[in-house]
Amino acid sequence: MKTFLSTLLIVFFTTLLVGCKDKQEAPAQEATPATTANETRQGQAFLTDDESTPNVLDIAIGSPDHTTLVAAVQAAELENALVNAGPLMVFAPTNAAFDALPEGTVANLLKPENKDQLAFILKHHVTPGNYSKEFLKKFKKLGQASNENIPVTVEGDDVYVGGAKILASVPAGNGIVHVVDKVILPN
What we know:
By secondary structure, the protein is of the alpha+beta class. It has one domain: FAS1 domain. About 30% of the residues lie in helices and about 20% in strands. A seven-stranded mixed beta sheet has the order 2-1-7-6-5-4-3. β4 (about 150-155) and β5 form a beta hairpin. The relative contact order is 0.15.
């Protein structure tokens, strides 16, 4: 019995040592380096993931035509809202759409003291759902995350949401991004 226990202990410790030797620690997943002067931003939006289908935020970040929108989303600290499971429908104004606003408007909205106003305007571009441009033709109004309704109008093959024309649509892992030609301003 003593020999059996000794053999069992030797096998156990050998297995333990071999298992530890072959096991490599996986690197810890870190947040992307989005920081402000006083804090490190945290949340789902700041995790790196190269395998999942891009979400609406990933699509905006990857688009050279949406750098102003991305800067606004970051200034309003809404990144985590755009990576939620959704489905989300985002009406994404192009850089040209922001440039069409009165001079100084964007710079003023990006100031920290205007964060709440900026967030309200950006929420006016998001609604629950994942509807194609064709399906949107059936709507008269859409309820936005800003708790306001915006009109949907159809002119021929063109669909306008809150007066902004849908130029293109990009499916996302958590919804759809409709590229629009105007910033949709709340009432």
